[in-house]
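Hi X.,

You mentioned you wanted examples for the new student's onboarding notes, showing what a folding record looks like when two proteins sit in one file. Here is a clean example. The first protein comes first, with its sequence line followed by its structure tokens.
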Amino acid sequence: MNELLKKLQGGDRRSIGNANQVVNDVLDDPTLFGVLFDGMLSDDPLIRMRAADAAEKITVRHPEYLQPYKDRLWRAAKIDQQEVQWHVAQMLPRPELDAEGRRAAVETLL
């Protein structure tokens, strides 16, 4: 497992753990955003929720980081974990979407 995602392990769902440290790591090295995005699709529910939290915080400042992952964002939106869904709902409008993508975003949010 990647060192970045290891920082998101452990504890329980009431804590964001080291998500804010991961935010800073990715802001310092944007090439790590792909690793973080993969964490949202992890088998580990703690990594998923904390990766989604960190990605949401990062993309407030840098929505362009989501652009290469906009198609995979739909996959994250379908994860049956409320913490991930909350963060993905906030990220859905950030990448540039065509008309079909906007319709899909609205359907996903509803």
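Then the second protein repeats the pattern, sequence line and then tokens:
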Amino acid sequence: MRSPTDGKLLRIFIGEADKLNGKPLYEEIVLLARRNSMAGATVIKGSMGFGCKSRMHTSKLLELSTDLPVIIEIVDSEEKINDFLPSLDGMVKEGLVTVEKANVIMYRAEKK
């Protein structure tokens, strides 16, 4: 992805305990994004949240949860995000997927 440019931010909201082929779903999504040469992906683990079933997930000691919220963020061009979305349809059985406009200001790695 070249920079600066208009891009898209893909956010995938799932649970930490969600699996695909016996592996954490968030790992499978990030690995697929890498195989698809996406610009990058980040997994963010939440400490509290709820979804469409209104079941509370929290990391409080007295209510220890093994299914904390997880957000995967991927920023890339609109074309690459749109091409990636059909893959998610077969992977995400329960969760939320959003896409929004992203104004990419900088995308670079240090030259060695």
